[in-house]
Design brief:
About 45% of the residues are buried. Strand 10 and strand 11 form a beta hairpin. This protein is about 30% helix and about 20% strand.
Amino acid sequence: MSVGKSGNVDVVVIGAGAAGLGAAKALQTAGKRFVVLEAMDRAGGRAWTDSSTFGVPVDWGCHWLHSASINPMRQYADELGIAYLDRHVPWKAAEAGGRLFSESERDALMVEFDALYRAGMSAGERGIDVPLSDVVDASSPAYGLFESSVQAEWGFMPAEVSTLDAVRYRDTDENFAVRDGYGALLLAVASGIPTELNTPVKQVILDGNGVRVVTDRGAIEADSVIVSVSTNVLSRGLIDFQPGLPDWKLAAAAAVPLGSDNKVVLQVDSRHFGIDEHCSLRIPYPGAPWFNVQVRPFGREIVSIYMGGPISAELEAAGADAAIEAGRQALIDTFGTGLAGHIGKGAASAWGLEPSILGAYGAARPGQANLRGDLAKPVEDRIFFCGEATHPYFFSTCHGAWMSGERAAAEALAILS
């Protein structure tokens, strides 16, 4: 339906990311009247495949089919005939000068790395809710790899990540890359779901037995609303709820803030790396301490440099040119000045600057892990909530977001029936 003038629907879905689209698909299957309102000029949220900047598919957000054997998005990919790499991408590490770690060096580092992760998970399994940094050995030779991995997975430093929250994340360690982009896969799955783009929601008003949703393009009356916006959007009050959201809901949003994770993508003639296969390459960078670089993804002459935590936030604030230069310099510092002439066009994401998202990934603050459960709870049986952060164990994933949307739709349908 058009929201250019007032209308009535069963459910308004706020946000057309994976969670909102998952909710909408469930409502569509149930034959309900609904409208999806999206603030941006595109659907998909943090699942965004860009095929124009470099002439090949680039995922600026979601990239991996995590826990692939139990991931519903992989099942959709199979049904739609969408190709993905159904095996692990090998990983390598390099030091300044371009020397790649030997297989034995890499394996020894992984032994130390796994020990750090086990220490963090062990604390969580015992119900201890403290910072990861409190229970791991910072003198370990793998601590730098551990720190950069935590920043990549959570968007925060180990001191800002709860052991109890960390242990609740479920992962089968099957991470498959989608050939033509995860964002493209999501939109294919959601094909046929009508979405009103460029329509930010200003107010959600509980009115009698229903809900009034106000946008710049008009207001919509509905029986219920499904809210799929990020915790940062909720906690900063960017949507005016009347009456205001209860304190326990706002406390939950503040307890699970979004962190910072971004990517820099560069055109590079990969022959000058001495690497002729698609691999994940760790390279050193001051303050990171490692960047994770996807080299030659699906044989394409690009590299995707993943930056997390404080360095990501710092470079994002400094602007795209600064982030691109940091990625470029990291490659040159590792592989030598001879590489400089073989690096071409660059671009960078900036999820923290997207006003309808305001960050990437997220982690429960130490001591507040149990508040994550309140994110999914409805308000007044009229306002339902979804989004990756609301999933109890698949948070920080596209499939977790999608499944949370299905759950919120089921809750709304139970009230509507």
